[in-house]
Write a structure and sequence with these properties.
This protein is mostly helical. A hairpin with a 5-residue loop joins strand 1 and strand 2. It is extended and about 85 Å long.
Length: 223
């Protein structure tokens, strides 16, 4: 095993934000290989993050994001355990990144349990009828539909969406995985609680059409 020096520990600590002793231990475990040490710390941190997920998080922040074109805006609440962590740069950046995700990808819910059940069941029914119409065997249709419903969730559920700011090395990382990494980094439970997304003019055309239909019905009724 090679000798671990202070410069290696310092570089790893700056790259990961992990504690001094954790960095030293990680480098020893992988014989001084910096990249492997980063992976070691990440895996260790994610394991710890899973244990923290059930802890109460009542602090945090409500933040706003307005896109540069002034046509899309987001209000977002993210919770953590302490006011101290809520004021850190890491937590603030995470909140901003998630708000941008909501603005860009227009999710319908934070988690799949929050999705409107009638919407999901309607989609499932459509997909099932389509599969049967394509001649898929009855015995495998439900399995096919389950896979398509998972894809449906991955497009509409915030935590299951692919994070839009991923780099090439993390191209498939989801928002939920990013959240777990933040828990590991900050040492507290971090939860995306709720959001509201505003888009300029959204729904106005529909209301206009509904009003026109209402007027038409009234005209026909009086004729």
């Amino acid at each position: 095993m090679g000798q671990i020096n202070a410069a290696q520990i310092k570089e790893l600590r700056e790259a990961t934000g992990a504690g001094l002793m954790d960095c030293k231990k990680a480098l020893k475990e992988v014989d001084g290989d910096l990249d492997k040490a980063m992976d070691f710390l990440r895996k260790k941190g994610l394991a710890k993050a899973a244990k923290k997920a059930g802890r109460i998080a009542t602090e945090g922040a409500v933040i706003s994001y307005i896109h540069s074109n002034k046509r899309v805006g987001v209000l977002l609440e993210v919770n953590c355990e302490t006011d101290f962590v809520a004021k850190t740069d890491g937590f603030t950046q995470f909140c901003q990144d998630i708000a941008m995700q909501v603005a860009a990808m227009s999710p319908e819910a934070v988690r799949r349990e929050d999705m409107d059940t009638s919407t999901v069941e309607k989609e499932r029914e459509i997909l099932r009828e389509k599969a049967l119409g394509e001649g898929k065997p009855e015995k495998i249709v439900d399995r096919i539909v389950d896979g398509q419903i998972n894809k449906f969730y991955s497009e509409r559920v915030l935590l299951e969406q692919v994070f839009v700011k991923n780099d090439a090395d993390n191209s498939k990382r989801t928002v939920e995985q990013l959240q777990k990494e933040m828990v590991a980094k900050l040492g507290e439970n971090v939860q995306i609680r709720r959001f509201v997304r505003f888009e300029l003019g959204e729904g106005l055309e529909k209301k206009k059409d509904d009003f026109a239909a209402e007027v038409a019905a009234q005209v026909q009724g009086s004729s």
